[in-house]
Amino acid sequence: MTDLRVLHRQALRTAEEITGRIGSTPLDVATPCGEWTLRRLLEHMVGQNHGFAAAARGETKDRSVFDDRPVGDDPAGAFAASAADVAAAFTESGALERRWWLPEIRDERAFHATVAIGFHFVDTVVHGWDVARAIGVDAKFDPEVLAAALPVAAAVPAGESRLAEDAAFGPVVADGGSGDPLDRIVAILGRSPQWPQPA
After folding, report:
1. Is the pLDDT of residue 1 over 50?
2. How far apart are CA 170 and CA 126, in angstroms?
3. N or C: which end of the chain has fewer CB within 10 A?
4. Handedness of CA 20, 87, 185, 32 (dihedral sign)
């Protein structure tokens, strides 16, 4: 079985390729991620990368490590630096042995490392797709990445919790029947695969 960290790094590389194509796209354009602009989405992605890196290294008290981070005039560079940080943290000695504190998901009890890596893995895939759609390029994740991300996405609880204002994902929508695993993943997590058209 492939170490999820290997697939996670592959997903990060694809997300880096996508953000590297932002170019002159205005950062105030809409994204499939709720009401977030591209800038807001990128700030969230960079903040989460650094936050998960801190969790992997043993942070258990400072919630601010997960705060959004400004991306300035070089969003691709900011994302690449944060991706390098989280990839390195996930492979450091002891990372898999400790439990990870993810207060935005559950404050009272830490997660097993592999579960936490799964959260960040599927988040990287979905937000990579969000950015790709916002700037009008394809999100070309490796098939093995999508095959691993699909059951992680399917395990995310559905129901009324998805209707909350601060919910990480919206309600499940129709995937359009394309059979594309990426379409299925984003639909499970509340995005229309045909965005900006509704599902």
Report:
1. no
2. 12
3. N
4. negative
Residues 35, 15: Cα–Cα separation, whole Å = 21
Q: What is the pTM of this model?
A: 0.94
DSSP-derived 3-state class of residue 101: strand
- Per-residue pLDDT for 162 more than 70? no
Quick one: tokens of 56? 């992997």
Inter-residue contact 42 to 79 (CB < 8 Å): yes
Higher-pLDDT residue of 164, 106: 106
In sequence order, the β-bridge partners of residue 100 are 111
CB 32 within 8 A of CB 195: yes
Rounded Cα distance, 7 and 142, in Å = 9
Tokens 């504190």 appear where?
A: 101
Q: Which residues contact 161 (CB under 8 A, 6 or more apart)?
A: 167
172, pLDDT greater than 70: yes
Distance of CA 98 to the CA centre of its chain: 22
> Could you count the other beta carbons within 10 Å of the beta carbon of residue 11?
26
Quote helix, strand, coil % in the chain, to nearest 5: 50, 5, 45
